[in-house]
Design brief:
about 475 residues; Aspartate Aminotransferase, domain 1; Aspartate Aminotransferase, domain 2; 4-stranded antiparallel beta sheet; about 40% helix
Length: about 475
């Protein structure tokens, strides 16, 4: 019998009890496709002379059944899964930025599970406006006249520029033409909005007089962009927002500031965020509109938040692009719940980002010592608690360094990259960083409830058969 003849027909395979049950649960087409792919793989390997594979029909059918079931499970498994963020980067863009508060999660579940008054005015019994849901809290927290929510901060910049400056010039300092995550650049967003970029100053030095000299009848607005993912040091100069706002009043031009980070300024900043600009501060300095993110230092869902003068907000609200960029009911539910927590001093500690920012080094040390003690008995594993620094990340406060205590882990017989890979591919996945051939784990970004799971994940990754 040739090797390939041991492979039963697909129809025979589908009659086997486990595959028949899988067909009933997931659909015959899904299971038969998995069986055909498994059979093709087995045929190829048999023809290549792989002696480890089954050599008779009974064993081949068993082998194929198991592989087909594995493929069905893999095909239906979610690709988006929770991970343990042990990097010490609070707003890790690749890991979904801010974790939501339990209050926000509960509100999302409550609103998304059924119908809601997203665009229905309960008082009037008629169609309402979804933009009203978070506006009151935004106004209360920032001191703005009005507020508006879109699906992210890049969308906020795009719709503001399209509404207020399409076909006209927007004056921006060369030192603020930044690139944000994913390769998106401020000049590209300006071009997509239909506005015309008017650069002033130099990369390292721009003065208020540069803005004033560039103003013409073609000018639509003055744009200030917070360089949230880098810092220029040394021979540098940048006009204050107050100076730019004074120019805006002098020439009757709106002044728009894109802050990005979403730091409201309703509480004193922790160490490392002392120089981070705030939404309240920018409005107080004279900005007509301030743009920020909901999923950065605000600690809420992905959203772009626009606050400022009502006349400008109303113009933006009416722009056709708002239909494409509006936020959905789950975003509003999570954002409103998060803003409500900021509005009540006793409840702010329930916002995970604020909790992580506020963690004291000694509290992290105590937890780290506990995890290290739990790992002390793992054969071949060494774990030290050392000093280190966390950072805010996510394009917020680029120079922030929050003192922390790190777990520095080594596994005898494997290098740090192999151990990191084992942790990353484990269940749950643990995302760490490597320095000097040690895997570093920062508990600032790990929920205290996950300390036991983290210790178990490191233990599992340290086993000889982990690969």
């Amino acid at each position: 019998m040739t090797p390939a003849r041991v492979i039963p027909s697909i129809e025979e395979l589908l009659q086997r009890p486990a595959l028949a049950a899988a067909s009933a649960a997931h659909g015959r087409d899904v299971v038969s496709r998995a069986a055909r792919e498994a059979a093709a793989a087995l045929r190829t390997r048999l023809r290549a002379g792989d002696a480890s594979l089954p050599g008779n029909e009974t064993d081949a059918a068993t082998w194929l059944e198991a592989r087909a079931l594995e493929q069905v499970a893999a095909g239906l498994a979610a690709s988006l899964v929770p991970v343990i963020n042990a990097t010490g980067v609070l707003l890790h863009t690749n890991l979904g930025r801010a974790p939501l508060a339990p209050d926000a999660l509960a509100r999302v579940t409550e609103v998304a599970a059924g119908y809601s008054n997203l665009e229905y005015d309960l008082d009037q019994g008629a169609r309402g406006d979804r933009h009203a849901h978070a506006e009151r809290l935004l106004v209360d927290l920032t001191g703005a006249e009005a507020g508006l929510v879109v699906n992210n901060n890049a969308a906020a910049a795009l719709v503001v520029l399209a509404s207020l400056a399409a076909g006209r010039e927007v004056i921006v300092s060369r030192g603020e033409l930044v690139e944000i995550g994913g390769g998106f650049r401020v000049p590209d967003i300006l071009a997509a909005s239909g506005a015309v970029l008017r650069e002033v100053g130099t990369t390292n030095r721009t003065r208020a007089s540069d803005y004033a000299a560039a103003v013409s009848e073609r000018t639509a607005l003055l744009l200030r962009v917070h360089p949230s993912n880098f810092q220029i040091e040394g021979f540098a100069e940048r006009p204050t927002l107050e100076a730019i706002a004074a120019l805006g009043r002098r020439f009757d031009l709106p002044v728009v500031e894109d802050l990005g980070s979403g730091w409201l300024g309703v509480v004193d900043p922790p160490t490392g965020l002392d120089t981070e600009p705030t939404v309240r501060g920018s409005l107080g300095a004279g900005a007509d509109l301030v743009l920020s993110s909901g999923d950065k230092l605000l600690g809420g869902p992905q959203a772009g938040i626009i606050v400022g003068r009502r006349a400008l907000i109303d113009r933006i609200r009416r722009h056709p692009l708002m239909r494409a960029m509006r936020a959905d009911k789950m975003t509003y539910a999570a954002l409103e719940a998060t803003l409500a927590l900021w509005a009540q001093p006793p409840s702010r500690d329930r916002i995970p980002v604020w909790g992580m920012l506020s963690l004291r080094r000694e509290d992290i040390d105590r937890r780290a010592q506990g995890v290290a003690a739990a790992l002390a008995a793992v054969p071949g594993l060494s774990c030290r608690v050392v000093d280190g620094a966390s950072t805010s990340g996510g394009g917020a406060a680029p120079t922030s360094r929050l003192p922390t205590r790190l777990l520095a882990v080594r596994r005898e017989g494997i290098d740090a990259s192999a151990l990191e890979r084992r942790l990353r591919l484990g269940r749950p996945p643990v995302i760490a960083r490597i320095e000097k051939n040690e895997v570093l784990l920062d508990l600032r970004t790990v929920s205290a409830q996950d300390d036991v799971r983290l210790a178990a994940a490191v233990t599992a990754a340290s086993r000889p058969d982990a690969e």
